[in-house]
Amino acid sequence: MVVAQGVTKRFGSVEVLKGIDLTVARGEVCCLLGPSGSGKSTFLRCVNHLERVDGGSITVDGERIGYRRRGDLLHELAEREIAVQRRDIGMVFQRFNLFPHMTALENVTEAPVRVRRLSRAAAREQAHALLDRVGLGDRAGHYPAQLSGGQQQRVAIARALAMEPKLMLFDEPTSALDPELVGEVLDVMRGLAADGMTMIVVTHEVGFAREVADTAVFMDGGVVVEAGAPRDVLDRPGQDRTRSFLAKVL
Ligand code: ADP
Ligand code: MG
């Protein structure tokens, strides 16, 4: 589903991604761990084309991000076409970014109606089902300010799912939550994984990664330090940098 090869990205003179290779098979969960500043968010943003890579390539479901193939030639996509490509990729951020003036239900129906041209009735029906799926069937009429952080984040997940993405990207989805609210969000993500969603999850939740991830990737300083089965990377890491990071977060 996702193949990144030699991805480089610089901001000014600072190279923050120094050749990232990463593969995520369809239906698999990849957890991305690493210290702050190691380039995890930048990498996710490149997958979603919120940032443009300087070198290397990323393909999602066989489509090169930012390009379209015409015969033997790759054409760079215009901004409007990039938005179309991005529809298939759901993203959930640390901050929930819900529309504050819309109810949970309206937050979830907005994009399907506007972008997927779903009828309002069909979008509402889908939104009710999605809110049920994230355990918020009884909160459809609530505004974000009337919901806890964990509930807001679950609405944000439902909103991303409403676009029927083939890939979900999570950037530290539980980092902004009070500790007692982390579990309910991780439970929803566990359910998604069990349903076969392909996911890349940036997280410091080592327990979640160990349990849910098919692949754990440890990044530091813009490179992948090690990647593999969670029981290898998280329980017997081969690299000192991984060991010292895990010692700090565990
Ligand atoms: P992580 O998510 O692992 O904490 P980031 O991808 O956010 O790391 O950041 C990697 C590096 O890139 C950091 O040094 C950060 O300061 C820098 N960086 C990220 N975004 C920008 C930007 N828009 N402009 C300049 N530097 C940036
Ligand atoms: Mg980050």
UniProtKB/TrEMBL annotation:
<dbReference type="GO" id="GO:0005524">
    <property type="term" value="F:ATP binding"/>
</dbReference>
<protein>
    <submittedName>
        <fullName>Amino acid ABC transporter ATP-binding protein</fullName>
    </submittedName>
</protein>
<dbReference type="Pfam" id="PF00005">
    <property type="entry name" value="ABC_tran"/>
</dbReference>
<feature type="domain" description="ABC transporter">
    <location>
        <begin position="2"/>
        <end position="246"/>
    </location>
</feature>
<dbReference type="InterPro" id="IPR003439">
    <property type="entry name" value="ABC_transporter-like_ATP-bd"/>
</dbReference>
<dbReference type="InterPro" id="IPR030679">
    <property type="entry name" value="ABC_ATPase_HisP-typ"/>
</dbReference>
<keyword id="KW-0472">Membrane</keyword>
<keyword id="KW-1003">Cell membrane</keyword>
<keyword id="KW-0547">Nucleotide-binding</keyword>
<dbReference type="InterPro" id="IPR017871">
    <property type="entry name" value="ABC_transporter-like_CS"/>
</dbReference>
<keyword id="KW-0813">Transport</keyword>
<keyword id="KW-0067">ATP-binding</keyword>
<dbReference type="InterPro" id="IPR050086">
    <property type="entry name" value="MetN_ABC_transporter-like"/>
</dbReference>
<dbReference type="InterPro" id="IPR027417">
    <property type="entry name" value="P-loop_NTPase"/>
</dbReference>
<dbReference type="InterPro" id="IPR003593">
    <property type="entry name" value="AAA+_ATPase"/>
</dbReference>
